[in-house]
Amino acid sequence: MSPWRMTRWERGDLPPGTDSDPGERATGADGPRRRHEALVSVRLGPSAPGSHLVEYLRHEPCAVEAWWIAADVDAVIRLAADSMTVLHRAVADLRLRAGVEVAEANYILRALDLSAPADPRTPEWAGSAA
């Protein structure tokens, strides 16, 4: 859905009468607001050209990156938004407006720390491959 057709809280603003969402970090001087992200696997409908999806994603404000995939799906799209409501809406819009037959969303919770083993007793095979 177009951002101008959404209500303020669907765009990420808080509903009237609420001070803050306890699950999200503060904005402004207190630090950056938490970004919600999803990786969406999509399969285009039989009559939908890939160019239609690409053109739709160029105008979708939540679209961050996209890749054509050689698998059971046609593409993987990374979406990001300031609220889960907007993110859910962006996934639904892929189905409704982008010619996508199947859209399976995998919502990202947090990044994994791959820099060092969490436990010193980590098995040898889990160490470096060098």
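(the above was protein one; protein two follows)
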Amino acid sequence: MTTIEVHLMAHVLAAVLRAAMVERLAGLTTTDFGNLTSAVREILELHQPDCKGRCRECTGWPRNRKFPCRVWLIAHRHLLIPSTNQKFDHV
């Protein structure tokens, strides 16, 4: 398989996944969105920093990460509206 074929397959797969996601989201009810919002808030709360500035949930080697950890960043970037005045580049 050539590189072009791999990129084409990845593009097609991404389009199929996008379409499936849009269809799934269109079928969600207001209650479903409320549950999703609650879940995201809980994830963000679990991954808040401790007194040393480390993620409380991602503890122990090699996960003892400075805040924000990757989980917090992903949830914040993709599921919530990010704040324009915060910038976290170290993760």
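Reviewer note on protein two: Residues 50-81 form one domain.
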